[in-house]
Design a protein that fits this description.
Elements lengths: L1 H16 L7 E2 L6 E4 L10 E7 L5 E6 L4 E6 L2 E2 L16 E8 L2 E7 L4 E10 L5 E9 L11 H6 L20 E6 L9 E2 L2 E2 H18 L3 E4 L9 H10 L4 E6 L11 E6 L6 H10 L14 H33 L4 E9 L11 E5 L6 H7 L2 H30 L1
GO molecular function, one term: N-acetylmuramoyl-L-alanine amidase activity
Keywords: Hydrolase, Signal
Protein name: N-acetylmuramoyl-L-alanine amidase
Length: 406
Amino acid sequence: MRWLCALLLVWLALPVLAQQPSALARIDAARSSLVAEGRDRGKPRPMELRLVLDQPVPYRVYFLDGPPRLVADFREIDFSGADAAALSGRELVPALRWGRFRPGWSRLVMELPGPYALRAAVQGPAQGGGAAVALRIEPVGQDEFAPRDNALSALWDLPAPAAVAPVPRRIAERVLRVAIDPGHGGHDPGAQVGAIYEAAVMLGFARELTEVLSRAGFEVVATRSDDSFVPLERRMTLARAGKADLFISLHADALPAGEAAGLSIYTWNPQADDRATRDLAMRHDRSDLVAGLDLAGTDDQIADVLMDLARTETQPRSEAFAKFAVSELNRAGIVMHRRPVRGAAFSVLKSPDIPSVLIELGFLTDAGDRANLFDPEWRSRTAQAIARAVGLWAQDDAARAALSRK
C-alpha cells in the first residue's frame, strides 16, 4: 500500500513538473486516434479523441460555435513533426488541426459534424508508457450545446454580454476599489539578486500600500495575500470579480547593470519595441501566458477588434492615472526613470474593461533601487504618493464622466 501511495504521489506531481519550460511533452501520433461508436448512418456519433503523450500535461477543454468545434488547450505539447491530417480517424470530422500558438501553450481545434457535449475528460497512464488524454464527446441537440458565448468572453473569462446589465462609465456613487497585484509568487519568485526575491519584496510593499489606501478610504482587492502562485489571467479575473475600478500591478525586476534604474509606470502598448521593455515583458510573462482562442480563422481578429473598442475608453483612463502618479511621486521626491511613463505589452495590462498600470518600483539589479526598496521611509513616501494619485485620479475620472453624460 505504501508503494502504491508513493507511485500515486509521483503521478500527481507530474502535471506540475510538466509546466516547467524544460518539460515539454511530445505527442505519439502513431498511438493517438479518433474513434466513433456505432455504425455510420449519416448522423453524428459519439466519439473519443485519444492523445498519447510522453508525459502528462495540464489542459482545458471547451466548445465554440460557428461552426461547432472542440478546443483543447495544453500546456505544452510539441506537435512538430506530427501531421494532424494523418491521425487515425481524422476523416470522422470536417477538420482537425493542432500546433503551438503562443509560448507555453499548444492548441488542438477539432471541427465537429454538429453540436456535441463533453461527457468525460480523463488523463492517465498509457499502455506502453507515457500518458493518455481521452476526451469523450456525444452529439446533443442545439438547446444542450454549450459553447463559449463569444471570442471576447472566451479569451478574457468575461461574463456573457447578454447577462451584463448596463453600468455607468465611472463609479462615483460608491467607494473606489483598487486591485493591488504583487507580481509573481509561489513557484515563480520573479527576479532574484542573492537572497532577495522580487515576489517577497512586492508582497511586503503591497501590504503597506493596502494599509495606506484603506486608511485613505479606498477598498482594496488583493490578487494574492501570501506567497502563492496566481496565473496572470486569474489575477485579472479576481480584479474583475472584486469590481475593481483600477488595477495596479507591482514589480521590481532585474535587467543587466546600467540598463535600468528608477521607478517607472507602464500602460498597455503592444507596439513597444525597445529591447529593455521586451526583456521585461518576457520576464513578467515567462511562467504563465494568457491563452487565445484559435489557431486560425477570425476569432482572434474579432477579439482584437472588440478589445480595441473597449480600450478606447479604458486606455486614456489608464494613461491619466499614470500622469497623476508621476506628478505625486515627483512631489514626494521619488527618483524615477528618465522616461517615467512607458508602454509595454505586459499580459496583466491587457484587460479591456479596467484601467490598468504596472509600476516597476525599481530594479533589484541597481544598488540604489535595492536600497530604496528596503528603506521604510522610501516605501512610506511612495505608498502615500500612489494613494494621493488614486484619489486625484478618481475625482478627475468622475468629473470627466459627468461631462460626458452631459
